[in-house]
Amino acid sequence: MCEGISTWPTFHTHLYFDGTGQVSRVSGESVGRLTLEGVDLRQVVGVFNRETSLSDDDDEDQDDEVVPEETAQVEAKIEKRSRRKSGLVVATSQASTQAQLREQVQHLMTLQQPAQRTPEWYAMRKTRLTASDLATALGESKYNTRFSLLEKKIGMGKKFTGNFATEWGVKYEPVATEIYERRNGVRVVEFGLLPHPTISFLGASPDGIVFGCHGDCPGAQAKPSPLDGHMLEIKCPPKRQITGIVPRDYWMQMQLQLEVAELPLCHFLECEFSQYRSEKEYWGDSQETERGMILYLWDSQEAKPAYRYAPMGVSRQGMAAWTKQQEIAVAKSSRYGIRDRVYWRLEKYSLVVVRRDQEWFASVLPIIKSFWHEVCYYRTQNAEVLYRDYGKKMPVEELEEEDCDGLGAAPVITGFLSESDDEKSAPRRGQPVKGNRFLSDSDTEQTPPVAQRKSRAKSGTEGSRRRAKRFVSDSD
């Protein structure tokens, strides 16, 4: 039996399908539209989802019970009847067999890739446009501008040292990964920075890819899983509300990750965690949900936090024994010191399947190449040229081929976003596009008017001119 979740208007309704695609049972809040065959399949965005709370009706065994034949029939109906703009479709690629997906994952494992957040990883990122920066390069980021990304890529931008949200995500990403593995009975393989197979300036660092079963089963990686080849992208927002809808910048990030890895699907996992005020409160909580303890360390060598994770669901005696072992190990090390014990619990768990959209990626690839040509050009110039000529036509003919390895023929470049080309970038929220892309119709109401966006672009250009003026004055 396959399990799904309806996400409009809420993602707390569970739909259980039998082998013919019929809805055999509905649990949770009664929302959504019931139509042909008991349910409107256009509302379904997840087959392997479930609520955080574990009830008698929703035991953990159902999470591990994934029947490919049943899934294929449900997915076929969804694929045929669902053509929403969101780009969120629950469908395993019929063209990619499990054997082919496993072979592709094994190939990715053989590639040279620096581990995430190592000096080699950061150095390699400087020479590539990575998935997390794609929305910014397309002028679609809510947080950064193309100009700030350009500064960063040519080595002039202010170094980002992190904030509360990023540190929260780093702390809880391993926890979310383990919860995903436990609920789906799989093993997630970590990857570093993967290079694009044909475009040398593109790269991506997926949070993980499913390969093999979970736990201590013999030959885990040799045992096939129905989810083998599914990429995993994890977000643990400390404040942002989890709605079951993928934000556009994350959708774009996953598209580049799928292109780099040449995989058809990505699981977008969002988890909301809360922290107990004390150990007493932790042991006094009787609600059944995933919870545990994190030992918060300070790495004196790297001058940053480090974390060690207690076994999930361990007893009070087991927790005490594990903590004692860690304290002894830390005491023998001159590098780490214990700062705190963080007791946590899972509040929300949302899993959405995002399908690779090769047509969309092909449509924005010229914009991506155009941006990288600007990066390559300004790397050969000094800072004064960047601030003086920003937004003007770039002399592409002066660009040497070796400065933009992998780009091929240089497209005509007229600069960054201007009032005339703002609408030529990646589609705006609510803009009609072909195929399954971006957010739902409800997100259209959050879109600022075009005039307002142009005003922002204009003010951004004026800001760069002011910086250029200050730079010239300082250099004089």
UniProtKB/TrEMBL annotation:
Name listed for the protein in its UniProt record: Uncharacterized protein
GO BP field: DNA repair
Cross-referenced SUPFAM superfamilies: Restriction endonuclease-like
Domain of life: Eukaryota
CDD domains xrefs: PDDEXK_lambda_exonuclease-like
Cross-referenced InterPro entries: Lambda-type_endonuclease, NF-kappa-B_Signaling_Reg, PDDEXK-like_dom_sf, Restrct_endonuc-II-like, YqaJ_viral_recombinase
Stored PANTHER family: EXONUCLEASE, PHAGE-TYPE/RECB, C-TERMINAL DOMAIN-CONTAINING PROTEIN, EXONUCLEASE, PHAGE-TYPE_RECB, C-TERMINAL DOMAIN-CONTAINING PROTEIN-RELATED
Lineage of source species: Eukaryota, Viridiplantae, Chlorophyta, core chlorophytes, Trebouxiophyceae
The organism of origin for this protein: Coccomyxa viridis
